[in-house]
Amino acid sequence: MAGGKDVETVRVYAGAGTPDGPPTASLRVDAIGLQCPLPVLKLQKALRTLGPGKTVRLDATDPASRIDVPHFCNESGHDLQQQTEADGVLSYWVTASA
Fold it and tell me: At what angle do helices 38-50 and 65-76 cross, to 10 degrees?
């Protein structure tokens, strides 16, 4: 465990998106408190699990995720729909590619 957090924590997220808000996510990945490369590795695992066209929300506090997540999406072909930051938590909505 890193900082007392189980690195396999993945939660189903049933929140709906709004026209002015974030996209709807099929799965929410909690990587708060985890350091590079764990947030991206957890995102990658979630995207594989869901399959093409599904969206994953990743929440992270690692500042390196600002670089790592967009780079991962660019290299792997996944679509980074949106990213936000609130109260020190960086949130990313990523849709899996085919």
Answer: 40
Buried-state track 24-54, b at ≥16 Cβ within 10 A, e below 16 = bbbbbbbbbbbeeebbbebbbebbeebeeeb
Classify domain 10-95 by CATH number.
3.30.110.40
Active site residue 73: no
Going from N- to C-terminal start, the domains of the chain cover: 10-95
The catalytically annotated residue of 36, 38, 41, 64 is 36
The answer to whether the CB of 92 falls within 8 A of the CB of 65 is yes
pLDDT in tens, 40-63: 999 999 999 999 999 999 999 999
Using alpha carbons, select from 60, 58, 61, 59 the residue that is nearest to residue 78.
58
Which positions ≥6 away from 74 have C-beta within 8 Å? none
Q: What is the pTM of this model?
A: 0.80
| C-alpha radius of gyration, the chain, whole number | 12
